[in-house]
Input
Amino acid sequence: MVSVYSAKEKNLSASEIQTLYEIIIKAYADTEYQMWGMNYVRVTLDDFQKFIEADQILVEFLNNKIAGGIRYYPLDQNTYSFGLFGADFSLSGKGIGRKLIEAVELQVTKSGGTSIKIEILRPRDFEIPIKTKLHDWYQKLGYAFVESIPFEEKFPERAKGILVPCMFDYYEKKLV
Output
């Protein structure tokens, strides 16, 4: 059985927080090493715990075992975004990602949000299969491609640490 909860309201134990954190870190390390290098850590544990305290993290359980999580947050009064999205790769094909996205969309709607805008980082000059798969998957879920902008335009300081030129692809879904 699949269940999605607010990580804050679920009052995760330190061990559960660590498990969720490791799933998300592994997801980014495995899918973005070509851009950031090996052993890439997307977010510190301290910052991750701050997101939990701010009630911005949803956690998914499959048969009472942590299967994945996602962070969602407001960009403005009507628009939200999500990131730090990861699922246990050993559970691929069980609908974990889709359920997390549906839970975010429900929370955004309950909060009065009317749209979600997301970004996918990808290399500019070559393809990474998981990034292509995400592009197709998000569109299947109703997220329309909006634009691409060079990563260094948005984050000039962080761009100094990236290994290859990258782009942010933006997608948006209207919820009402």
User: Anything to note?
Assistant: The CA atoms of residues 24 and 86 lie 5 Å apart. The first strand starts at residue 2 and ends at 6. The beta strands are 2-6, 57-62, 65-74, 79-87, 115-123, 144-150, 166-174.
